[in-house]
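Good day; I would like, with your permission, to put a structural problem before you. The record follows directly beneath this note:
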Amino acid sequence: MGGVGEPGEGPAPPGAPLPTFRWEQIRQHNLPGDKWLVIERRVYDISRWAQRHPGGSRLIGHHGAEDATDAFRAFHQDLNFVRKFLQPLLIGELAPEEPSQDGPQDAQCWCLQHDLGHTSVFRKSQWNHVAQQFVMGQLKGFSAHWWNFRHFQHHAKPNIFHKDPDVTVAPVFLLGESSVEYGKKKRRYLPYHRQHLYFFLIGPPALLPLYFQWYIFYFVIQRKKWVDLAWMITFYARLFLTYGPFLGLKGVLGLFFVVRFLESHWFVWVTQMNHIPMHIDHDRNMDWVSIQLRATCNVHKSAFNDWFSGHLNFQIEHHLFPTMPRHNYHKVAPLVQSLCAKHGIEYQSKPLLSAFADIVYSLKESGQLWLDAYLHQ
């Protein structure tokens, strides 16, 4: 075993003893262009490779200077194949006296995590990327890269400010700790104590037809995702060629925005009912299971709820097993629930209408936190 390593030594030569690092050394390498992470107690320098990461540089960068073992195992199907890409990045390993994870650790969640590793028996084959581009681009008019960019970050760090784009929504809405921060700094871009009311005007109605609509085009052009852009153009071409002869230009545009308007309502309520009412905070470098359970709740199983949400009412299972096909969530849910009960960990599930109402209640509560801090600080 090599001695304690010095920062910036570079990849270890093949066959040479690996230098060892302490967490205090690793924590120094979480800067743009200088990022290390730990997987299975081995230390990797991903500074240059992060831009080539298939899941995006932000996704892997969010785990900078952390133990990324659980995220690594959750997101990758063929671990042996992926380890081949890691090997050239290997620079050392954790010192024997160092814990596997730096930061707060929930012993109960570590027990659950161990048990879940033996119950993950349902797997999904890797989507062909061209098929994903066809579905997202030709059938929906969206960008596959844009969706992966947002969704992968959400799964890696759910409800974490600046790492989960779904909750980084200030200054339009304030959630969790951002409410108090804005109040203390006397920021008042909008009447946030009324955000639970204007949510109905600019949340569900506007997310897809207005915000997402322009942002997707901005994303693909700014990042030069020309293949995605071509697939998106085929969607609009098909739309106008199919309905144009019957409805005319104004009719096609009206149909398009009405469909997006209705779809936006469904999308916002179904995707936010599992997260917005849950704990939202800055990154505390917690273990994988703790992050997922603090940020996620389920909606009760029923034939209607399963159909209406596309099985996303099993959001806990969706986050613990991101590669699992959604129709299998109900099979593993009883196992997860029993393991949570065994280890004394809260497993939240609620009725559908209660989940919807909790979105509004949580916005109202956050708005009140802002007002209190704004008036009294």
